[in-house]
Every structure is written in structure tokens, then in C-alpha cells.
Amino acid sequence: MAEEHKINLCSQGIALKALFSGYLIVVAIGYLMAIVQIQFTHGMADGELGLSVDDIVYSYYGKRSGSVLEAKLNGSMKLMAPEADRLKIINWVHKGGDEKSFNDTGIRKIFDTNCIACHNASAGIAIPDWTKFENIAKRAETDTGASFSSLARISHIHLFGIAFIFMFVGLIFSLAAGVPRYLKAAVIVTPYVFLIIDISSWWLTKLNPNFAWLVIIGGGAMALSFAFMWTVSMYEMWIRPRKGSDKRDALLDE
User: Distance from CA of residue 233 to its chain's centroid?
Assistant: First the structure.
């Protein structure tokens, strides 16, 4: 008589473990790439590499003492143009950023040389089109951070996308028999709770910079829960079986 097969990660066949492991490895790499991308976007908002509270404030609330264009030139776009050209653009912004001086003082030529290759309508990426002066002038105004329309667009993308990622990671983790059921349930729910907190804090920071801490707390809690589920799942699939068979049924909280 065949031995009863229990539903847990330790007892699964090599094919299912390969499927789960492949998915976990790919999403882990994707998570790391997302962290790198954040460092080169939000992480450079204050002009220095590394995510800080000021970066969050400048990204969502804005740097109300300056313009979006100046903030980008001193932040994420700092390496995209020579120092002299950057300073000329910033000086032009400080003097009012009018169209006549844009054309007469060589600022247009600087944009054409350093920016238009990416900032054009046919680039296929969601960045401003610098071939139109009105787009440049708009971002030479006082920096009020992310717009409400952009927050709405990014929020719904993150809510759908990240929720799907954690659904599958949580599903795999739910088959870990070596974690107490209440701890397991708490860890599975944690990323959803802090995803809502994280997204909400973007909107709150847009209104009040004091909420910037919530962005870091929300993102940090999601990362920790992901790391915990990932590590436990990989352990129970590949290391736990070396210690013997597991007779517990993870779905029945045994």
C-alpha cells in the first residue's frame, strides 16, 4: 500500500519544487532590480545616491523652494549632462525660464545635445517631451512633487502587480509545514497591509511631508516579509528533506 502523501513543501516531487524555486528566484531578482531602480530614481532626488526621507519628500511633496527641472538636474539626471551645461540650465531657470532667453542664450542647444535623444515623443518611455518648449517651461516652475494623476496611475499599477506577486509567493509559503499557523497567517497578510500603507503614504506625503516615514516603513515591511517567505520556502523544499520525511499537512495546519 502506498504511503499517504502529505501536502507540504518538503514532500513535493522534484518537478513541483523546480517550478516553485524557479518562480521564487526570478521574482527575487526582480525585487532586487526594483530596489536598484528606486535608488536611481527616488534615491537621487536629493542629489546623493541612497534612499532617504528627503528623497521621499522631494519625490512626492516636491522641493517647494525650487523647480522640478532643477531638482532633476541636481538628482537623477545629474550625470546626463556636463557640469557647465547643467549650471547654465539652472541659471536660466533662476532668471525666470522665459522662451526668448531659452533660444538666445544657447539653452535650447544644450537640450538638443544632451536631452532630446531620450526626451522625445517617439522614445516610447513615460518621460517629458523636451522638443516642445511648453513641457520644459512647465517643469521649470516650482516643484510640487508628483502630480495626482501620476500618483493614480502608479498606484493602480503597483496595487495590481505587487498583489499578484505576493499572492503566488504566499501560496508557496503556505505549504511550509514548519511555521506555526498564526505566524504563517500573519506573515502572509503583512505585505498586503503594508502595500496599502505604502501606497496611501504616497498620497499623504503629497499633502504633508511628515508622512514620508510611512513610505520607508511600508516598503521595508514588505521587503522583510518577502525575504522571510522566500527563505523559509527554499529551506523547506531543499534543505528540510535531508533531515527526513515530513508527515505534517500544511493545508490542515498540522
Answer: 24
Main-chain dihedrals φ then ψ at residue 142, nearest 5 degrees: -55, 135
DSSP state, 45? T
What number of other Cβ atoms are within 10 A of residue 187's Cβ?
A: 20
How remote is the C-alpha of 81 from its chain's centroid?
A: 25
Q: CB under 8 Å to 84, separation ≥6 — which residues?
A: none
Terminal C-alpha separation, the chain: 23
Task: Kindly report, residue by residue over 9-57, the tens digit of the pLDDT.
Answer: 998 999 999 999 999 999 999 999 999 998 888 887 776 778 889 899 9
Q: Would you say residue 127 has pLDDT above 60?
A: yes
DSSP state of 251: G
Q: Which candidate, 69, 34, 52, 54, places its Cα nearest to that of 143? A: 69
Which range of 71-80, 90-99, 144-153 scores highest in mean pLDDT? It is 144-153
At which residue does the C-alpha cell 536660466 appear?
92
pTM value is 0.74
Residue 46 contacts residue 75 (beta carbons within 8 Å):
yes
User: Which residues of 132-175 form beta strands (DSSP E)?
Assistant: none
Question: Backbone phi, then psi, for 67, in 5-degree steps?
Answer: -110, 165
- Integer Cα distance of 198 and 252 in angstroms: 32
Please report, for residues 8, 9, 177, 193, the alpha-carbon distance to residue 13 in angstroms, rounded to integers and kept in the order given.
11, 9, 16, 33
Classify 135 in phi/psi space as left (phi over 0), alpha (psi -120 to 50) or beta: alpha
Tell me the three state secondary structure of residue 167. Answer: helix
Q: The cell 521587503 sits on which residue?
A: 223
